Amino acid sequence: MDWFKSLSNVLYVDLTRKTFWVESREDLFSKWLGGIGVATQLYKEEVPKNADPLGPENVAIFAVGPFTGVHHLGSKTIAVFKSPLNNYFSESHAGGRSALAIRFAGYGAIVIKGSSDRPIYLIINDGKVRFRDGSILWGMRSTETVGRILREVSPGPGHRAIMRIGRAGEKLVRYASVITETYRHFGRLGLGAVFGAKKLKAIVVVGLKGFTIPDISTYRAVYNEVYELAVKSPAMKKYHDLGTAANILALNSIKALPTRNFSSGSFEHAGEVSGEKLAETVLARRVACAGCPTACIHIAALREPYPEEPYFYKMKFISYDHEPLYSLATNLGIGSRDGFLKLLDAVEEEGLDAISTGVVLAWATEAFSNGIITEKELLTKPSWGDFESYIKMVRNIVIQPNEFYRTMALGVDEVAKKYGGLDYAISFNKVEPAGYHTGPLYIISLLIGSRHSHLDSGAYSMDQELLAAKKPLPTPQEAVEKIIEEESWRQILTSLPVCLFARGIYKPEMVEKCFKPLKKEVSAAELKKLGREIWIEKQIIKYSEGFNPLELRIPKRVLETPTPHGVVDENYVREALKYFNLVVNLSSKLK
Amino acid sequence: MKRLVVVDVNKCVGCQLCMLACSRRFGVVGHNKSAIWVRSAGGFERGFTIAVCRACKDPPCARVCPTDALKVREGGGVILNPTKCIGCGLCKEACDIGAVMWDYEVDKPVICVHCGLCVNYCPHSVLSLEEVV
Fold first, then answer.
1. Which residue in the set B31, B45, B123 is minimally distant from A182, CB to CB?
2. Hey, which residues does A11 pair with through a beta bridge?
3. What is the mean pLDDT of residues A328-335?
4. DSSP B90-126
5. N or C terminus: which one in chain B shows less Cβ crowding within 10 Å?
């Protein structure tokens, strides 16, 4: 089948009526490419303005695109949904085998609508969707076991993705994740709770089909060119070697590593939980997403003795990255590698987002030491570095034995609004941030980024580049322009979609070149224009859902703790927000 | 004559670029024309299994073919004559290591020709093309 025809197939699944159908949406894929571009339009069609994120009117959209399986690092799936964490249009990205499985199953996007009356899981294979009873899997303690069972009862090993939720999603923890292939996550913004509300335990997608490329000889040449860049260029080296964990020491050395709930930018035990030390001591295996030669997934082996039974051990394999190292080690004052791995393992078993969970735990530690909450609510006495208490708390966020933990499950913003300590509840538009404290551009980017993610625009790099070049800060207006320009280009990268780690390879001219074998004529200039258009489409949706940058809370703590650029001036940030609001209003009128 | 060899399966990261390369021989993007198959050995945490023809000198797949569609290749392995093949699937059953793949589009086996294209795209030197002794 022709690549474009197979890409344009959108699979709709209605969980309420247990039906499915396929529509050819060449209209969407020809204009908006795929990935976030297409998923944004599908969201507009499907989700009413006042939709309840946990109601049947919300959808879970998974979209791939023209580069999926075709070009190197075209290994990401873009999930779009209304977030139960902040109530806005949201997106989360993951790799594993999800992208190639969806694409080779013969679809460009999957739209999950409605909600089931009882637990189910889906097997999508050979043009059909099977609705399978999920009662047995529901409530199972570990997502690892769920994965193991689904591997045995589903077809297509090697050609499939198994996307599943843990108990956290079932219990509607607003920052529950969807896990795919054990180690990759649709982590941010609570897609796991959307699944849970739909009573959807898992989706297995089997991709056994292929498609043709119009100009195969050009394709081979371009493919080889990108391959050379992907395996040899310095742009990818960081991800090859130590993985993203290489950031720990780098950020620590410039005092930009969030530590003990952002009260400091450096951690005295950073060396113990650094990428270097982990590689030296516990790194056991490296794994790649399908279609990517990089193998950035770093897996540690944790050998644990059973205290009551001598000579009995369990061996757990846990994947680590910079973000969990920040959120579940440095930001909780944990300098023990084993302690960190045990805590991360509990987070993975439950199916929680590691970043949000760590930030919530950090707030609770401080709130406890300030006397705002007591052992009565917490059921333990946490202190920095005490990973055993944190593991208990992780279980309780999911089990929700009291009102306090029911509120903890709503995110740091909600729990601090109820119990106090809002000044040190670190979130941006209710989203707990990734692990950087680099300076004002990063803070602005978290507030205005469409998914409030560090990867919206990578502004943590902008702060560091300014520092390295010893350049003064731009004006707030210039900062916003720079952030929007980068975020707009990333709309193209995530419409193709390629992994954002490959942003150094996929410059506009290279993207233009990679489209040639598909016989789709798009110039670098047109792509940039389209990126801006997708960006504004997303802003219009968010504004229609009530987003107002002028009313955003900026956690006092991040304005107090010095960054490498010194203490960040709130006026500078507020000026930027005003300018951002102006730009969005003007751009949406021009549209 | 050369044959494809899995040098060290423990170094395999599961990127599946070898599978993509194999299907690309036919101008196809997918895994459906691939004669090599990489899957997890029971979850990513346990590493990977690579199924590919190991060029048997006296291949069971050829012995069970009722239509002589599989001819023993010099140096081991087999060559498929698709015009003779009736798609009975006996060859697939006869291969205990699962190295006879299936092309569901044409309902016939996919057989490794030991061309070594996949070797060029293995970033971690898991595969190699070696001279048959």
1. B45
2. A22, A110
3. 98
4. HHHHH-TT---EEETTTTEEE------HHHHT-TT--
5. C
The chain A residues in contact with chain B (CB within 8 A) are 3, 69-70, 100, 104, 144, 147-148, 151, 157-159, 181-183, 207-213, 216, 220, 223, 227, 231, 285-295, 297, 299, 317
Among partner residues A3, A208, A294, which is closest to B32 by beta-carbon distance?
A: A208
3-state SS class at A522: coil
Mean pLDDT of A56-80: 98
- Mark yes or no for CB contact A295/B43 under 8 Å: no
Instruction: Kindly give, in sequence order, each residue whose CB lies less than 8 Å from that of residue A116, ignoring residues fewer than 6 positions away.
Output: A15, A16, A18, A131, A198, A199, A200
**Mutant choice from B8, B13, B110 vs A, greatest count of A C-beta within 10 A:** B13
ipTM of the complex: 0.97
Question: According to the model, what pLDDT value does residue A239 have?
Answer: 80
The predicted structure's pLDDT at residue A151: 97
% of chain A exceeding 70 in pLDDT:
100
Model confidence pLDDT, tens digit, residues B13-37:
999 999 999 999 999 999 999 999 9
Q: Cβ of B123 and A209 within 8 Å?
A: no
pLDDT at A591 over 90: no
What is the mean predicted confidence (pLDDT) over A115-133? 98
Contact call for residues A361 and A382 (beta carbons, < 8 A) = yes
Q: Do A208 and B31 touch (CB under 8 A)?
A: yes
Say which of A212, A286, A317 has its CB closest to residue B13: A286
Model pLDDT for residues A177-224, shown as the tens digit of each residue: 999 999 999 999 999 999 999 999 999 999 999 999 999 999 999 999
What is residue A9's predicted lDDT score, i.e. its pLDDT? 98
What is the pLDDT at residue A503? 95
Chain B: residue nearest A220 by CA? B24
Q: Which residues of B touch A (CB under 8 A)?
A: 13-17, 20, 23-24, 27-33, 37-40, 42-47, 104-105, 121, 123-124
Residue A207 is given by DSSP the state: -
pLDDT at res. A240: 81
- The 10 Å CB-count burial string (b at 16+, else e) for A401-419 is eeebbbbbbbbbbbbbbeb
DSSP B46: G
- The answer to whether A263 and A257 are in contact (CB under 8 A) is no
CA-nearest residue to B51 within chain A is A158
For A468-513, what is each residue's pLDDT tens digit? 999 999 999 999 999 999 999 999 999 999 999 999 999 999 999 9
**Shortest alpha-carbon distance between residue A582 and chain B (Å):** 45
Nearest to residue A576, comparing CAs of A488, A434, A474?
A474
Which residues of chain A are within 8 Å of residue B24 when distances are taken between CB atoms? 220, 223
Buried b (16+ CB within 10 A) or exposed e, A422-457: bebbbbbbbbbbbbbbbbbbbbbbbbbbbbbbbbbb
For B102-114, write each residue's pLDDT tens digit.
Answer: 998 899 999 999 9
DSSP string, B69-95: -EEEPTTSSEEE-TTT-----HHHHH-
pLDDT beyond 80 at A271: yes
Is pTM beyond 0.95? Reply is yes
Contact between B32 and B104 under an 8 Å Cβ cutoff? The reply is yes
- Across the interface, of B13, B27, B40, the residue whose CB is closest to A212 is B27
What is the C-alpha radius of gyration for chain A, rounded to an integer number of angstroms?
23
Give the one of B28, B43, B104 whose C-beta lies nearest to A147's C-beta: B43
- DSSP for A222-238, please give it: HHHHHHHHHHH-HHHHH
DSSP string, A28-75: HHHHH-SHHHHHHHHHHHH--TT--TTSTT--EEEE--TTTTTSTT--
Enumerate residues 6+ apart whose C-beta is below 8 A from A334. Answer: A273, A328, A340, A343, A384, A385, A387, A390
